[in-house]
Amino acid sequence: MSRILVTGSADGLGRAAADTLLSQGHEVVVHARNPSRAAALRELVDQGAQLVVGDFADRDAVRGVASELADAAPLDAVIHNAGVWSGRAVMPVNIIAPYLLTALLPEPRRLVYLSSGSHFSGRPSVDRVDWSGRTPGSYGDSKLFVTALAAAVARLRPEVLSNAVDPGWVPTRMGGPGAPDDLELGHRTQEWLATSDDPKALTTSGYWYHQERQEPHLAAHDVTFQDRLLQALAQETGTTL
Ligand SMILES: NC(=O)c1ccc[n+]([C@@H]2O[C@H](COP(=O)([O-])OP(=O)(O)OC[C@H]3O[C@@H](n4cnc5c(N)ncnc54)[C@H](OP(=O)(O)O)[C@@H]3O)[C@@H](O)[C@H]2O)c1
Q1: Which mutation among 6, 30, 31, 33 tests ligand 1's pocket best, with the greatest number of atoms within 8 A of CB?
Q2: Among 103, 132, 181, 205, which is 20 to 30 Å from 237 by CA?
Q3: Active site residue 207
Q4: Residue 54: φ, ψ to 5°
Q5: Ligand 1 atom closest to residue 56's alpha carbon, by position in its atom list
Q6: Taking a C-beta distance cutoff of 8 angstroms, is the pair 195, 24 a contact?
Q7: How many Å apart are CA 80 and CA 77, to the nearest integer?
Q8: What is the mean pLDDT of residues 99-123?
Q9: In Å, how far from its chain's centre is CA 2?
Q10: Mean pLDDT throughout 75-92?
């Protein structure tokens, strides 16, 4: 049995992953942005899930969640799932929050970051990026950054299994009702990477789609780009990895 945090678990793929992991007997920490969204998690909390609350568009709230978790039982895995498609929260939620949690929660041995096929359209540059969310951010850029973060963590923490997942275009609130890919397959890879002892899942630095490794954007494995990204994130947040 593992203890796993699933960020953004009030809805969509995060909710489905939390539900599955709980039903498999794992200890699950679910996360909602505020108390009113936490109400959507009551059923999982009633089944034994621990709840943390914090709006990931707000760095102080991310730090609050990290410090609450640092005082609790250690986590075995984190699924960095919370994400937004557009608007000012894109950079704060899609890259700043997973970066801060990664830096502030050093003990989990398995880290899974939600990427997207859209990361291929991302610009591999940290110049002129508005990390703070004063202006709308590019989803493709944010997903390229989080894919490179996953690979950088794999390089810098060899004891950690750090992987990125493209869940496919699936019919959640974000994906929309007409999304063509399989919703069930959309969360299975994250659960598998977070918990399975299958030798295929016990690998690091992967970019996965439906339990198969694929090649991400070349920049994700470019050490110079990774280092520039980590430096920009450290400078922006005042927190190093
Ligand atoms: N669906 C797709 O086709 C697709 C494709 C590629 C990648 N992805 C990625 O998969 C992940 C999950 O997406 P999804 O399709 O499940 O989206 P979703 O249905 O919109 O769910 C997103 C989750 O993130 C949470 N969240 C958003 N902003 C937050 C904030 N400021 N603070 C805390 N939590 C926040 C949401 O909470 P609320 O419910 O309170 O808003 C919700 O639980 C995302 O990272 C997304 O980029 C999805």
Answers
A1: 33
A2: 205
A3: no
A4: 180, 135
A5: 32
A6: yes
A7: 10
A8: 97
A9: 17
A10: 98
